[in-house]
From TrEMBL:
<dbReference type="Pfam" id="PF13927">
    <property type="entry name" value="Ig_3"/>
</dbReference>
<dbReference type="InterPro" id="IPR013783">
    <property type="entry name" value="Ig-like_fold"/>
</dbReference>
<keyword id="KW-0472">Membrane</keyword>
<dbReference type="InterPro" id="IPR003598">
    <property type="entry name" value="Ig_sub2"/>
</dbReference>
<dbReference type="Pfam" id="PF08204">
    <property type="entry name" value="V-set_CD47"/>
</dbReference>
<dbReference type="GO" id="GO:0007411">
    <property type="term" value="P:axon guidance"/>
</dbReference>
<dbReference type="InterPro" id="IPR036179">
    <property type="entry name" value="Ig-like_dom_sf"/>
</dbReference>
<protein>
    <submittedName>
        <fullName>EMB protein</fullName>
    </submittedName>
</protein>
<feature type="transmembrane region" description="Helical">
    <location>
        <begin position="197"/>
        <end position="217"/>
    </location>
</feature>
<dbReference type="GO" id="GO:0007156">
    <property type="term" value="P:homophilic cell adhesion via plasma membrane adhesion molecules"/>
</dbReference>
<dbReference type="GO" id="GO:0005886">
    <property type="term" value="C:plasma membrane"/>
</dbReference>
<dbReference type="InterPro" id="IPR003599">
    <property type="entry name" value="Ig_sub"/>
</dbReference>
<feature type="domain" description="Ig-like">
    <location>
        <begin position="90"/>
        <end position="189"/>
    </location>
</feature>
<dbReference type="GO" id="GO:0070593">
    <property type="term" value="P:dendrite self-avoidance"/>
</dbReference>
<dbReference type="GO" id="GO:0098632">
    <property type="term" value="F:cell-cell adhesion mediator activity"/>
</dbReference>
<keyword id="KW-0393">Immunoglobulin domain</keyword>
<keyword id="KW-0812">Transmembrane</keyword>
Length: 225
């Protein structure tokens, strides 16, 4: 990559595995001499175990989430070049825009894991800094949780009230850790869509009243004449 701007690569892992990370210097940097190569995970230095011409590698045995994170290879000579590998569990896709519904209606929220199958799904409602687990088996008249497949989960909220307004999280558990998706639900009062209509009705009433009073005034004036 370019000097001063590290290249970055995301690597998604859902289960234990053995991987090799390798950095190879681009041919346009073949002029660099006396390269010093360092691998790091955070502030911890890792010794590379495999070197070929202009290429340095490390082998990792990923057994749990303690081995996930960012691994950086740093090449120093006349210039400094680096690359970062981000080892992470699969990301969960929710919905970016808030879900808008009205009091008394039903809202459905969906989370998906593309290409990876979670061991389990859990839904939460965020209450400030706390998370409240949504248990549909205890509140069958309020929540229904199901999935079309193991990669998808649906949360259905029945008979919406203003208390249902807020942030919801779907958590997918994988062998190497957990991944969270966030969704927002906005519950509006039934009066909200009626406000523009009521405003128009009020304007019409005022206008009709003014016209009626003007006609009454005109008729009285004619009688006096």
């Amino acid at each position: 990559g370019a000097s001063g701007a590290p290249m970055e690569k995301n690597i998604t892992l859902e289960s234990a595995t053995r991987i090799e990370l390798s950095c190879k210097v681009d041919t346009k940097y073949s002029h660099l001499k006396s390269l010093q190569v360092t691998w790091r995970k955070g502030n911890e230095t890792i010794k590379h175990i495999n070197k070929t011409e202009n290429s340095w590698s490390i082998h990792l045995q990923i057994l749990d989430n303690s081995k996930l994170g960012s691994y950086t290879c740093i090449l120093k000579a006349e210039e400094e070049i680096s690359a970062v590998f981000h080892l992470q569990v699969p990301k969960i896709e929710g919905k970016e825009k808030p879900i808008v519904s009205y009091e008394g209606d039903t809202a459905v929220m969906i989370c998906k894991s593309f290409g990876y199958t979670p061991i389990a799904w859990t839904w939460y409602m965020a209450n400030g800094s706390d998370q409240v687990v949504i248990n549909d088996s205890l509140l069958t008249d309020k929540y229904v949780i199901n999935g079309g497949s193991a990669n998808v989960t649906h949360l259905k909220i029945l008979k919406l009230t203003k208390e249902d307004d807020g942030v919801y999280q779907c958590e997918a558990a994988f062998e190497l850790g957990k991944s969270v998706g966030t969704l927002k639900l906005k519950v509006l009062s039934l009066m909200v869509p009626l406000k523009p209509f009521l405003a128009i009705v009020a304007e019409v009433v005022v206008l009709v009243t003014i016209v009626f009073l003007y006609e009454m005034y005109s008729k009285k004036k004619e009688k006096r004449a």
